[in-house]
Specification:
With about 160 residues, the protein is mainly beta. It is about 10% helix and about 40% strand. The longest helix has 12 residues.
Length: about 160
Amino acid sequence: MRFILLLLLALASSGLRADDAPPAHVGLYDGNQPDYAEVLRVVRPGTRWSLDELVKLNAFGGGKHNFGTWYQGPNPREFTDGNGRVLLMYKVRITDPRGHVRTFGPYGFTTRGFATYFVPDVQIGIPGTWKVDWLTVHRDTAAEVVVQSDAFEMAP
């Protein structure tokens, strides 16, 4: 319970508001710049995508921008134990239109507290609504909290 309260307090004190965020946390982001771990550059958020368009943009690797999802979490320095070890990590849960669920992580946040996840799963070409859940994970207790959920449509 203390973990959840600390997380909510940190997010509230961060100055971030829900209306400051892009309309979706899925789309194209620039993960290729030298200061990637310091600055999250969202190029084009969106809730509807076409596999053909993403392939033409080379958004699945090797291109200028990546197709994926992102989450602005708390600054890792705000959640450390007595030895300075970061206590919060994250997981990403992807649900495809057939209901198949895959979970990845836990991973550490960038130094600025955000995380991105490249979503290669959509390359299998299943049209429909995909769901992405972000979970924070407490390193010591393994407690998981869903902190963000997004849905996006892949057109046939």
